[in-house]
Amino acid sequence: MNSTLIDELHQSYGVKRAAIRARLDEFSAVVREGDDARLFEELVYCIFTAGASARMGLNSLERVRKHLHASGHSKLELLLVGAHRYPRARSGYIVHTRKYLKRECGLRLRDKLASFGNDDEARRDFFARNPGIKGIGYKEASHYLRNIGYCGYAILDKHILRTLFECGVIDSPLPPSTKKKYAAVEEMMRKFAAEIRINFDELDLLLWSNKTGEILK
User: According to the model, what pLDDT value does residue 33 have?
Assistant: First the structure.
């Protein structure tokens, strides 16, 4: 492992630790206190961030927030023009996913999430492997669950992967292409977190913020 980069990580962690923990506390409040509408908004946000930036995801969500539960494909697409790079595709994903979740659980996402109990893998698989939910793979399913307060998931985006590669944790910064590969990289990151004595969920935000300059979501 690259000891110089690890030393730099610890220095950065010392500076950002309080802000990172505050952000994680905000996330944990969503599943405790947020209603089903908020949980669906967070899912839409993650649909927007796939193949785009976190900032683009936030801007896009603001454009459509008031229209998420009733508007059709055409209306949502129109609202997303100029906010998202793929307005037609993403608006289609939202409508498809909304229809599916209405059939599956009446859009009662709090109950659906709770139904998995302590089975963290099944909870993520529901979003990552479900053809009823468009635009969400393992990275964004992990992103969604982290953002609503579930711990223990790594968001293996390009920033995280690049840093893990630079630190010598993984052999390649390329995104894992299967569930098995995703889980393998996630486990390597978990062991890395334990070795350098930084909480796993805090490390995820630390690595991301060190590359982007922001502690967003």
Answer: 87
> How many CA atoms are closer than 13 Å to the CA of 190, on its beta-carbon side?
10
- pLDDT score of 47 more than 80: yes
DSSP, residue by residue, 159-196: HHHHHHHHTTSSS--SPP-SHHHHHHHHHHHHHHHHHH
Q: What does the alpha-carbon distance between residue 109 and residue 130 come to, in Å, rounded to a whole number?
A: 15
Residue from 178, 177, 160 nearest 169 by CA: 160
Structure-block tokens of residue 31: 């599943």
Residue whose C-alpha is closest to residue 216's, from 59, 10, 51, 91 = 59
Catalytic amino acids? 139, 157
User: With pLDDT > 70 as the criterion, what percentage of the chain qualifies?
Assistant: 100
**117 Cβ contact partners less than 8 Å away, ≥ 6 residues apart:** none
What would the two tokens of residue 104 be? Answer: 């599956």
Q: Give me the torsion for CA of 66, 23, 146, 196, rounded to 10°.
A: 160
What is the pLDDT, as a whole number, of residue 3?
82
Structure tokens given for 166 = 């630079």
The span from the CA of 22 to the CA of 133, in Å, is 30
